[in-house]
Structure formats: C-alpha cells, structure tokens
Amino acid sequence: MEWIYIGLTIFFWGLAPVFDKIALKTVDSSVGLAVRMMWSGVAMAVFVLAAGKTETVINFPFKNISFLFVSASVSLLGYMFYFKALSKANASKVVPAVATFPLITAVIAFCIMGEPFSVQKLSAVILIVSGIFLLH
Amino acid sequence: MEWIFIGCTVILWGISPVFDKMALKAIDPVLAVAIRMMTSGTLMFAFAVIFKKTEVIKKLPLKSVLIFMAASSFSLLGFVFYFKALSAGFASKVVPAAAAYPLFTSIIAFLFMRESFSIKKLVAIIFIVAGVALIK
Lengths: 136, 136
Prior knowledge:
The complex is a heterodimer. Chain A is mostly helical. Chain A has two domains: 88 residues, no CATH class; 37 residues, no CATH class. Chain A is built from seven helices and no strands. In chain A, helix 2 runs antiparallel to helix 4. Chain A is globular, with a radius of gyration of 18 Å. In chain B, 83% of the residues lie in helices and 0% in strands. Classes of the chains: A mainly alpha, B mainly alpha. Chains A and B meet through helix 1, helix 2, helix 4, helix 5 and helix 6 of A and helix 1, helix 2, helix 4, helix 5 and helix 6 of B.
C-alpha cells in the first residue's frame, strides 16, 4: 500500500516545480515565494480548523514548537535561494541539484549528533558529487 | 550564478530537518507540517508587508497566482501522501523512494516545457537519486 502513496508523493512533488517554473517567467521570485507560502499557510490553517485539531496544536510543548519555527525559518531562507535559482536556470538542472540537501543533513548528523559514518554513506557522497559535476 | 543559489538552498534545507527531527519527538508529524506551513505563511506575509510587496502581489496576474497556488497545492498533497506512506511502511524504504521526484520533474520539463534533455543529464539524475537513496 505504501508504494501507492510513494508514487503519489513523487507525482505531486515532481509536478510542483514545473508550475513554479512557469509562473516565475513573469513574477519576481520573492513575490512568487510569498504567494506560494501564504497559500500553504492558509490551506494548513483550514485543515487544522476542519480537523478540529486547534486545541492539540495550542497545547504542544513550547520547546518543540520553537524547533519547528526555526526549521520553518531556515527552510524558508532555502526556498528564497531555490526560487532565485529556478528563475535563472532550467528546472531539470536546479531540482535534481537541490535534491542533494540530505547530504548536508547526514554531515550534521555525523558531526554534531554522533551518527555513524559508513562505506555506504561514502559511496553516496561520491555518487551525489559526480551527479552535480555532470549537471554543470 | 545559479550554483551559488543552489548551494545556499542545499545548506539551508540540509540544516532544517535536524530541527524537524528534534521537534518530532513530541509532535504528530502531520500537525508538525501544519505548524511549519502556517509559520512559513505568516513569515512570508510579514516579509510582503515589511518590504512593501503587498501592492505587487495585488497587481499580479490572476494566472500567475493560480499557477503558484497549484504548485503549492501539489506540494502539500505530496506531503500528505508522504506522511501516509511513512505511517504505512518503513522510513528507510519510503524516504529514499520519495527522493526520486526530481526525475519526474525532469521528464515533465522535457516533455511539456521543451527544456533540453541529454544522456549526460539523465546519468547525473540517476547518480544523484542513487546517492540520495544510499545516504538515507
């Protein structure tokens, strides 16, 4: 069953940048990002209200909410650079290159959170760097 | 120039999941997405007000706004199925598989947006996706 969900995830996440790229032909990247994120925020607020989850959200621990605020802010900054890149280069080049971000997460996990580093991870690094080199 | 933007995106998006991971210790993942998106929406609204982009947004062609809303909705739908997949299967299987979405973007960009597609680009995408899958 999860493969249906995975397929739908790939379909929708793969489709979204195409629409971004089309809209960015005539709209400034920061303005485009503002429209996109405000729509996401409104849509999720409607979801929380419709699902009757407002009390649950209000009662979440402050510490965990703070982590999400930081994460959202950092991710948003990333989105700003992503949209700048999308407005200047082909989606087929930008989107795969940006998909290398789990590499940074792995490095942080290895350096700061003490997660193990393996030959498998080293192979992954070589593959990703080779891929980026080929995209140039 | 776009590679600087891509690099900044990769670093920021690589840092972001570390905070997500810390927050998710006590919060339901779907509601965490809701909080994240509402935070992003609020921040981008503040950005639009502070940098006087509201007038620009109001004057945006309806077509561009609708395209951004479509992109945002597709992305959100992707998140919904991603979390459904995560709840139905192992993360070690779901997360790398979902990371294959750039391949779909490239195919759509090639088929419908007439972006250039080469064997070199295909090999690069395969390398990156394989690397991302291995690192997870």
